[in-house]
Amino acid sequence: MRKLVKIVGSIVIGLLAVLLLMSVTGFEPKDCPPTDRSLSCKLPGLWIKGEPVTTPVTDWSFTDKIPQIKIQTQTPFLLPHSVIIWCAVYNGNLYVTSYRGRQWVENIIRDPHVRLKIADQVFDRTLSIVDDPVQKAGVLQAKGRKYPQWKVPSVSAATVFRVNPA
């Protein structure tokens, strides 16, 4: 019995050490150009790090020049899940869109607290799901203008989130 306790204790201590190391290093998703479809560019990361911004943002139009951002969500297993996504500005507000079924989308629906990394700045925010079809259509069109290579989905197929002010 003592041997089993030592083995289990060693495993637990080892896992805690690995988690501590990962929280220090971050393991952000890899920065890749939008056209890179390699496996290493599709893998999610864990913690994202950067210069924290705590002041409210009233106009997110500066993100129009930034092709990709990172979003960190919280999994049900108490580990972060971070991916690289596209964003769009509509009426001065920042939005992210995707489809149901993606892990990061389901994480936001369960817990809307996220961390966004835009350039080297990190914003801790909450997201709100957008249900208004007119607003969703406007956001999707804005995203289509920013990313002309993106095929704009139907309003009913897309999940749209608004980044709330701080």
Describe the 3D structure.
This protein has 166 residues and is of the alpha+beta class. It has a single domain (2-163), classed as Roll (Pnp Oxidase, Chain A), CATH 2.30.110.10. Helix content is 30%, strand content 27%. The chain is built from four helices and eight strands; from the N terminus they run H-H-E-E-E-E-E-H-E-E-H-E. The chain has helices at residues 2-25, 39-42, 103-110, 133-146, and strands at 51-53, 69-74, 80-85, 87-90, 93-98, 113-118, 121-129, 159-163. Strands 1, 2, 3, 4, 5, 6, 7 and 8 form an eight-stranded mixed beta sheet that branches. A hairpin with a 2-residue loop joins strand 4 (87-90) and strand 5. It starts with a helix and ends with a strand. The mean pLDDT is 90.
Largest β sheet strand count, sense and barrel closure: 8 strands, mixed
CATH H-tier superfamily = Electron Transport, Fmn-binding Protein, Chain A
Count of DSSP helices? 4
SSE string, helix = H, strand = E? HHEEEEEHEEHE
Which structural category fits the helices and strands?
A: alpha+beta
Helix content: 25-40%
CATH class descriptor = Mainly Beta
Averaged pLDDT, please? 90
In terms of per-residue confidence, which ranges show pLDDT below 50 for 5 or more consecutive residues? none
Shape category: elongated
